[in-house]
Amino acid sequence: AAFAKEGMVDPVRLMEEMNSGRIAVGPRGVIGLIDATALTSDARIMANVMSLAIKNGAILRYGSLQSSLNQIPRSSSTSKSFAFGNQEQRLESLPPVPDDDRASEVSQAVIFSGVFASCIGINIFSGLFGLE
Question: Does the predicted model carry a pTM greater than 0.85?
Answer without folding.
Answer: no
